[in-house]
Amino acid sequence: MPSTDRDSAHLFTSESVSMGHPDKVADQISDALLDSFIEHDPRAKCAIETLVTTGLVVVAGEVALHTQAANDALGRAEETIRDTIRRIGYDDAAGGFDYRSCAVIRTLHAQSADISRGVNDGDDASREQGAGDQGMMFGFACDETESLMPLPIQLSHRLVERLAELRQNGRFGWLRPDAKSQVTVRYEGGAPVGLHTVLISTQHTEEVVDTKTNEMSAEAKKIIRREVIEPVVERECPSLSTNKLILHVNPTGRFVIGGPHGDSGLTGRKIIVDTYGGRGRHGGGAFSGKDPSKVDRSAAYMARHIAKNIVAAELATQCEVQLAYAIGVAEPVSVYVETFGSSDLSPAVLERVVREVFPLKPARLIEYLNLRRPIYFETARHGHFGREGDGFTWEKTHRVADLRNAANVLQAV
Question: Coil, strand, or helix at residue 16?
């Protein structure tokens, strides 16, 4: 852990939210639209923001499309929006928000020409593609889990993922899409040693409300513990202590009104859930709705890839990478590697290793990670990192040998 006293005992907490959480509904709509455009135009430029509330979806932002097929997809944007809401699970008007009856307002317009000229795609051979915006991006990895993610956020994601699985397979028809999880882990000497608290709040129907208490029934809470919490904990951290584990299931009592009817949602409002649950630092940029020319997305993916490979190569047990860019400029203005005292290599050596092994200019890192594909909808729920699948190229650890070789050479100099 990033602490001045790595031997101190402490607690650390992270949270996740389900695909039906209002902010995640907004993220998924933005990324579903991005996928629909980039599928037909790999060089599409998009910055799409979504707001959802009771009976209403508002989509705004900028797009630049270069093919007729992509423009046709723009014409079908409302269909894409409604289909996304259906896939998430909002299909009942009685809940105050559903894909059939909600109003949809679209205000998408062309990208600023002033921005476009600084983010050249290489059509002009005399210029190299610059960063789509200024800013700093962070990536993080540690050896607490097989995915090299911090344990609290990894567990939090898997809990809401399990809830979604049980809801979607119809096993428990009273589960509804909106949910949140939270996990507190006990650390000693910088390593996780036990689970302290696990919390799940899940939306449900009136079917499991106890008529005497007007709260979620004790039986329904037992089901959540037995079918969600216990199997996830046993699978993800079988060696950790669960003595005196505190469990909270729907601690407010009931959660019938939820989703966009219970609270408005906005794209980009869950940036800590999307990344590392509060471990490491964050540059402030959100991901969803942005094509890969926006380095606050693509460079954050690259920073995770670099940090994960450094930890996988056993050059550090935890690693944070910062990349920073200026709009319209290809070369990063800075590269910084922090290992919190867990590496024998200095930050200066690690920075040189990173620059030697990994492509850091926007066009090259986009190509390296194969980001001009419709892969983004799946990232907009259950976390952008620590995931498996063809779309999550930044999770690959195939540069381990290259990093070790580069480190050996630079140390010998």
Answer: strand
